[in-house]
Amino acid sequence: MSGGETAQPLADYYIQQWKEIGLDVQYTTGRLIEFNSFYDKLENDDPEIDVYQAAWNTGTDPNPSGLWGPNAAFNYTRYESEENTKLINDISSSKAFDEDYLKEAYQKWQQYAFEEAFAIPTLFRNEVLPVNDRVKDWDWSYDVPNPWANVSVTADSRS
Q: Mind listing the UniProt keywords for this protein, alphabetically (predicted)?
Protein backbone atom coordinates (compact mmCIF):
# COMPACT_ATOMS: atom_id res chain seq x y z
CA MET A 1 0.00 0.00 0.00
CA SER A 2 1.35 3.41 -0.86
CA GLY A 3 1.76 6.14 1.72
CA GLY A 4 4.63 7.65 3.62
CA GLU A 5 8.21 7.99 2.53
CA THR A 6 9.26 4.54 3.76
CA ALA A 7 6.52 2.48 2.04
CA GLN A 8 8.29 2.04 -1.31
CA PRO A 9 11.82 1.32 -0.01
CA LEU A 10 10.42 -1.13 2.55
CA ALA A 11 8.30 -2.95 -0.04
CA ASP A 12 11.29 -3.11 -2.40
CA TYR A 13 13.42 -4.54 0.41
CA TYR A 14 10.88 -7.27 1.17
CA ILE A 15 10.66 -8.22 -2.51
CA GLN A 16 14.46 -8.37 -2.71
CA GLN A 17 14.67 -10.59 0.38
CA TRP A 18 11.92 -12.91 -0.87
CA LYS A 19 13.75 -13.22 -4.20
CA GLU A 20 16.91 -14.28 -2.33
CA ILE A 21 15.05 -17.24 -0.84
CA GLY A 22 13.48 -18.19 -4.16
CA LEU A 23 10.07 -16.51 -4.03
CA ASP A 24 8.86 -14.60 -7.08
CA VAL A 25 6.88 -11.80 -5.42
CA GLN A 26 5.55 -8.98 -7.58
CA TYR A 27 3.39 -5.93 -7.07
CA THR A 28 -0.23 -6.76 -7.90
CA THR A 29 -0.60 -3.70 -10.14
CA GLY A 30 3.08 -3.23 -10.92
CA ARG A 31 3.42 -0.62 -8.17
CA LEU A 32 2.20 0.13 -4.66
CA ILE A 33 -1.57 0.54 -4.50
CA GLU A 34 -3.24 3.73 -3.28
CA PHE A 35 -4.70 3.34 0.25
CA ASN A 36 -8.44 3.26 -0.57
CA SER A 37 -7.97 1.10 -3.67
CA PHE A 38 -5.84 -1.30 -1.64
CA TYR A 39 -8.54 -1.78 0.98
CA ASP A 40 -11.23 -2.10 -1.70
CA LYS A 41 -9.23 -4.99 -3.17
CA LEU A 42 -8.59 -6.54 0.24
CA GLU A 43 -12.17 -6.25 1.48
CA ASN A 44 -13.46 -7.80 -1.76
CA ASP A 45 -11.02 -10.71 -1.50
CA ASP A 46 -9.27 -9.82 -4.77
CA PRO A 47 -7.73 -13.06 -6.09
CA GLU A 48 -4.62 -11.16 -7.28
CA ILE A 49 -3.54 -10.58 -3.67
CA ASP A 50 -1.67 -13.48 -2.09
CA VAL A 51 0.39 -11.56 0.46
CA TYR A 52 0.02 -8.02 1.66
CA GLN A 53 1.42 -5.58 4.15
CA ALA A 54 -0.93 -3.28 6.00
CA ALA A 55 -1.31 -1.56 9.33
CA TRP A 56 -3.81 -1.63 12.11
CA ASN A 57 -4.31 -0.01 15.47
CA THR A 58 -5.41 -2.02 18.46
CA GLY A 59 -6.60 0.93 20.49
CA THR A 60 -6.65 0.40 24.23
CA ASP A 61 -8.39 -2.99 24.16
CA PRO A 62 -6.03 -5.76 23.00
CA ASN A 63 -8.85 -8.30 22.50
CA PRO A 64 -8.02 -10.06 19.20
CA SER A 65 -11.63 -10.80 18.24
CA GLY A 66 -11.94 -7.64 16.11
CA LEU A 67 -8.97 -8.61 13.95
CA TRP A 68 -8.80 -12.38 14.06
CA GLY A 69 -12.31 -13.56 14.92
CA PRO A 70 -14.11 -15.72 12.32
CA ASN A 71 -16.62 -12.96 11.51
CA ALA A 72 -14.40 -9.96 12.23
CA ALA A 73 -14.72 -7.15 9.72
CA PHE A 74 -10.97 -6.53 9.82
CA ASN A 75 -9.88 -10.18 9.47
CA TYR A 76 -8.45 -9.46 6.04
CA THR A 77 -6.30 -12.60 6.15
CA ARG A 78 -9.55 -14.62 6.29
CA TYR A 79 -7.76 -16.83 8.81
CA GLU A 80 -10.12 -19.09 10.69
CA SER A 81 -9.78 -22.28 12.71
CA GLU A 82 -11.74 -23.98 15.47
CA GLU A 83 -8.83 -23.54 17.89
CA ASN A 84 -8.45 -19.84 17.12
CA THR A 85 -12.19 -19.26 17.63
CA LYS A 86 -12.14 -21.20 20.91
CA LEU A 87 -9.18 -19.22 22.25
CA ILE A 88 -10.72 -15.88 21.22
CA ASN A 89 -14.03 -16.88 22.80
CA ASP A 90 -12.15 -17.65 26.03
CA ILE A 91 -10.72 -14.12 26.01
CA SER A 92 -14.17 -12.65 25.41
CA SER A 93 -16.06 -14.84 27.90
CA SER A 94 -17.52 -13.79 31.22
CA LYS A 95 -14.80 -15.88 32.90
CA ALA A 96 -12.33 -13.29 31.58
CA PHE A 97 -13.49 -10.83 34.24
CA ASP A 98 -11.07 -12.78 36.44
CA GLU A 99 -7.66 -11.20 35.72
CA ASP A 100 -5.70 -14.43 36.17
CA TYR A 101 -8.03 -16.27 33.80
CA LEU A 102 -7.78 -13.46 31.25
CA LYS A 103 -3.99 -13.35 31.48
CA GLU A 104 -3.77 -17.09 30.85
CA ALA A 105 -6.29 -16.88 27.99
CA TYR A 106 -4.22 -14.16 26.31
CA GLN A 107 -1.03 -16.15 26.76
CA LYS A 108 -2.62 -19.23 25.17
CA TRP A 109 -3.92 -17.23 22.20
CA GLN A 110 -0.58 -15.44 21.75
CA GLN A 111 1.29 -18.76 21.72
CA TYR A 112 -1.20 -20.16 19.21
CA ALA A 113 -0.93 -17.08 16.97
CA PHE A 114 2.87 -17.30 17.15
CA GLU A 115 2.87 -20.97 16.13
CA GLU A 116 0.33 -20.53 13.31
CA ALA A 117 1.93 -17.29 12.01
CA PHE A 118 -1.22 -16.22 10.16
CA ALA A 119 0.15 -12.69 10.43
CA ILE A 120 3.73 -11.62 10.93
CA PRO A 121 4.10 -8.18 12.51
CA THR A 122 7.13 -6.40 11.11
CA LEU A 123 6.75 -2.81 12.27
CA PHE A 124 5.58 -1.24 15.48
CA ARG A 125 4.82 2.38 16.25
CA ASN A 126 4.52 4.31 19.45
CA GLU A 127 2.01 7.04 20.01
CA VAL A 128 2.95 10.24 21.77
CA LEU A 129 0.05 12.05 23.35
CA PRO A 130 1.00 15.56 24.47
CA VAL A 131 -1.25 16.93 27.20
CA ASN A 132 -1.13 20.54 28.35
CA ASP A 133 -0.23 21.03 32.00
CA ARG A 134 -3.58 22.82 32.50
CA VAL A 135 -5.43 19.55 31.86
CA LYS A 136 -6.59 17.76 34.98
CA ASP A 137 -7.83 14.17 35.50
CA TRP A 138 -6.75 12.89 32.07
CA ASP A 139 -6.09 9.14 32.18
CA TRP A 140 -5.04 7.20 29.07
CA SER A 141 -4.65 3.87 30.89
CA TYR A 142 -5.78 0.73 29.09
CA ASP A 143 -8.47 -0.02 31.66
CA VAL A 144 -10.20 3.39 31.64
CA PRO A 145 -13.53 2.95 29.83
CA ASN A 146 -14.03 6.66 29.11
CA PRO A 147 -10.86 8.76 29.38
CA TRP A 148 -12.86 11.95 28.70
CA ALA A 149 -15.37 11.51 31.55
CA ASN A 150 -13.51 13.49 34.21
CA VAL A 151 -11.28 15.77 32.15
CA SER A 152 -11.18 19.42 33.10
CA VAL A 153 -8.79 22.35 32.85
CA THR A 154 -7.27 24.30 35.70
CA ALA A 155 -7.25 27.67 33.87
CA ASP A 156 -9.12 29.26 30.97
CA SER A 157 -5.94 30.13 29.12
CA ARG A 158 -2.20 29.72 29.26
CA SER A 159 -0.52 32.27 31.48
A: Signal, Transport
